[in-house]
User: Fold this.
Amino acid sequence: EDQVTQSPEALRLQEGESSSLNCSYTVSGLRGLFWYRQDPGKGPEFLFTLYSAGEEKEKERLKATLTKKESFLHITAPKPEDSATYLCAVQAPFGGAQKLVFGQGTRLTINP
Amino acid sequence: KAGVTQTPRYLIKTRGQQVTLSCSPISGHRSVSWYQQTPGQGLQFLFEYFSETQRNKGNFPGRFSGRQFSNSRSEMNVSTLELGDSALYLCASSLMSGKLTGELFFGEGSRLTVL
Assistant:
């Protein structure tokens, strides 16, 4: 069974304090790994897609990396507006493109 | 460009009732999927539709059903509501099924409370 585990569950940082969020996955044949951001009361918002080990993607203060067993979301010099829940998901090996298996998320709080 | 629109945003039902939720995808998007989000289980896939056909279904009982119309709008129905059905139901759309982008555009969800 495909599984995605994210750690830590919650993380509090001071503004400017860099850190990393972890996503470990177990899937039979990774088709893609995805990062989403979710703000309270909103639906998830797409951030990145990673397809193969060694791949990296960047967007502003965020950088996602992928190995054969896990992915990291690095956040550099975060600002309070980066506070959100970050969700990791893998695409199921069989079935439609929209069937994603999500982790429980990491709730990130950036204090000014 | 309008985003994914879900209605109603909030609703309260009692056990045993049934509920219908509606989703209008982004214009031009033909693929729609539904997810259930709860604090305990997180986001769980319900089903996916493309061109009015169900392409995939998650591990939910038959009380959960859905359909897609010719204009790509979608509805999901939950019959004989149980307390455990209380959740945020999210609809997502994408341009097409089978395209491996993983970029789903989510609506803001319909928050269902079952009393």
Remarks:
- The two ends of chain B are 37 Å apart (CA to CA).
